[in-house]
Amino acid sequence: MKLRNEGYDVDVAATAEAALAAAAARPPDALILDVLLPDGRGTDLCRELRQWSAAPILVLSAVGDDAEKIAALDAGADDYVTKPFNVDELTARLRAALRRSAPTQARVLEAGDLRIDFEKRLVTVRGQAVSLTPTEYDLLRLLAQNDGKLLTHPTILREVWGPRYREESNYLHVYVSHLRRKIEADPARPRYLLTVPGVGYRFVAS
What we know:
Layout: H1 2-5, H2 16-25, E1 31-34, E2 36-37, E3 40-41, H3 42-49, E4 57-62, H4 66-74, E5 79-83, H5 87-101, E6 108-111, E7 114-117, E8 122-125, E9 128-129, H6 134-144, E10 150-152, H7 153-160, H8 169-183, E11 193-196, E12 200-203
Parallel strand pairs: 1-4, 4-5
Antiparallel strand pairs: 2-3, 6-7, 7-8, 8-9, 10-12, 11-12
């Protein structure tokens, strides 16, 4: 198996019940879940795991099943890979998820010309301070502190605007557009704030 060849210690569970038992007995560093399981759905398993585990979770989903992907991400998954998938892509996404989950005390994020000082709530581009509204800053901070992780529209709306705005994606689109004009060299071809059509946004530092 590719993961074992890469040096990972792999435990395999055929059902959701077996996966929960195995994870409880030997807490994993990361999990890869299929959406369709013999005794349930990977989305429900993900939600249950998130009640006590912070380990990165990657979900395998069928091509074109956007609703299932979004449900899994909202249930706590960190990323997804569509079937059929390239095994090298899966291992790369796993490595990225493990890096993101590693403890960090970073108070400053530097990405190209962009610098975010989380402690001072200060954003600069090419050394020049960028004037952001409180909401713009909160949105940028949320995305940047989840560097590389895909955040769905409902997740972002809930974290930045609150639960009442869960369906108000128009707010999100407007603010992302504002942010891009302020921090991107070319807002039409963003480097940092990337769109995943129909799903959400991903901040990419490198």
